[in-house]
Write a structure and sequence with these properties.
5 strands; Nucleotidyltransferase, domain 5; alpha+beta
Length: 102
């Protein structure tokens, strides 16, 4: 079973990270973290070496599976990738012609 890391933004520089083990219950939570990268490092520390990968979600949107070691040691790179993925998912769909149909 692959663990899940859920990150939510509560305010400016105020994030919370939850870690679950795939059964829908939260096994670990930490509030007051300053960035997504801090959440990733904290979640990786909570997961330890028992798990190799974790699914990461931001604001209830699943964004991918990442090696726990990468979450720990390259958290800023993973944060940038997550923000980019989220922006692409939230971008409005474009039509091929650029003209809206009546």
């Amino acid at each position: 079973m692959q663990p899940e890391v859920e990150i939510s933004k509560r305010g400016e520089k105020n994030f919370v990270a939850y870690v679950g083990i795939g059964d829908g219950t939260q096994r670990y939570a930490r509030e007051g973290l300053q960035s997504i990268a801090h959440c990733l490092r904290d979640a990786a520390a909570a997961l330890g070496t028992e798990f190799r990968f974790a699914t990461v979600s931001y604001e209830r949107t699943r964004l991918g599976s990442y090696p726990v070691a990468v979450m720990a040691h390259r958290a800023h790179d993973v944060e940038e990738e997550l923000v980019l993925k989220l922006a692409k998912l939230r971008a409005p769909a474009r039509t091929g012609s650029g003209v809206n149909a009546p």
